[in-house]
Amino acid sequence: MTDLAKASDVEKKRLLWRCRQGTLELELLLYRFIDAHYASLSEQDTQTLQALVEYDQNLLSEWLLNGKEPENKKIRELVKAILNTKKPL
Predict the structure, then answer these.
(1) CA–CA distance, 87 with 3 (Å, rounded to integer)
(2) Do 79 and 69 meet the contact criterion of CB atoms below 8 Å apart?
(3) Reduced to 3 states, what is the DSSP secondary structure of residue 79?
(4) Per the structure, how many domains does the chain have?
(5) Residue 59's domain is classified under what CATH number?
(6) What does the pLDDT look like over 10-43, one tens digit per residue?
(7) In a domain, 89, yes or no
(8) pTM of the prediction?
(9) N or C terminus: which one in the chain shows less Cβ crowding within 10 Å?
(10) In a domain, 13, yes or no
């Protein structure tokens, strides 16, 4: 494993840890998206994802569980991508 791959793996693990929002539903949505797409995200998308998990749990619930749309375009696009991630069989 290269140093870059190791760094990326550490970043992914830190991000997964920060996804622990206190509600299982939010965690599952975020974990599923990260597992499916983290390796293919651009640097900008990774930064947007990192910013997303820093939002208050209530806002994340509104966006990811209750269908409200964020005002920020990048966050809104990411929320849609998270919600469109297929559930594993």
Answers:
(1) 31
(2) yes
(3) helix
(4) 1
(5) 1.10.150.250
(6) 888 888 888 886 789 999 999 999 999 999 999 9
(7) no
(8) 0.84
(9) C
(10) yes
